[in-house]
Specification:
about 220 residues; Alpha-Beta Plaits; 2 domains; three-stranded antiparallel β-sheet; about 35% strand; globular
């Protein structure tokens, strides 16, 4: 097995590829007749897809096994762009969406999300958020506009999405296998608690980035 780092617009991720060796019955007589298999990293990098692969290297089986076993224990850090159904202040976000030391992690239960019911077993999953905080997209100088926007929201909802105080960036580090989209919008009450229930209003997720995959403890045990 080989593992490489794939660089794409907006982030990067690891990928793996399996290589197989086939023996040709005439290889000992005419090795030049055998086709040379293309290298995956060369093929991807030379394509026009905008993707580049670096640090492509073969891994010993013990490391691959350790990485597979770590899939159930690793933690990930995410960044999500969210939009609320009503104007919010930074104080409201701090009060409702701040998790981290010295406080305990946020425990939640996620039923199998509706969007993956067709390919996942129906069961409840216990997950936790290790660290979380949220920041309004607009600057502090616009905090004074929130009250005025709340009044405007009661009169008209046609331009509610244009209100800057409804948009915030959520930073969080979670346990393995947690469904982030469902944690934000609640998935019809199938994830409890959710960002929606914590803030007391509807919230939707528009963009989601994986910022880091924490494998330090797993790598040290290799």
């Amino acid at each position: 097995m080989c593992v490489g780092i794939v660089h794409m617009q907006g982030g990067c991720c690891c990928y793996e590829t399996h290589t197989h060796t086939h023996t040709h019955k005439h290889a000992q007589y005419a090795p030049s007749l055998l086709p040379t298999p293309p290298q995956p990293h060369t093929h991807i990098t030379q394509s026009k897809s905008g993707v580049q692969v670096t640090t492509f290297t073969a891994l010993p089986q013990r490391i691959v096994t350790a990485l597979k076993q770590g899939e159930e224990h690793k933690e990930k850090t995410y960044r999500a762009l969210c939009c609320a159904s009503q104007p919010l202040t930074q104080a409201q976000l701090d009060a409702a969406l701040t998790v981290g030391p010295p406080g305990p992690p946020l425990r939640l239960v996620q039923q199998t999300p509706v969007r993956v019911m067709h390919r996942r077993a129906l069961r409840a999953r216990d997950k936790h958020v290790v660290h979380m905080h949220a920041v309004l997209v607009h600057g502090e100088e616009q905090q004074g506009k929130v009250a005025m926007e709340e009044e405007e929201h009661t009169r008209s909802s046609s331009t509610s999405l244009l209100s800057p105080s409804r948009w915030f960036v959520l930073h969080l580090r979670t346990s393995a296998g947690m469904y982030i989209k469902e944690f934000v919008h609640g998935d019809f009450g199938r994830t409890v608690p959710s960002v929606c229930t914590l803030l007391g209003c509807d919230v939707d997720l528009l963009l989601l980035d994986v910022m880091d995959v924490h494998l330090d403890d797993i790598v040290q045990g290799m």
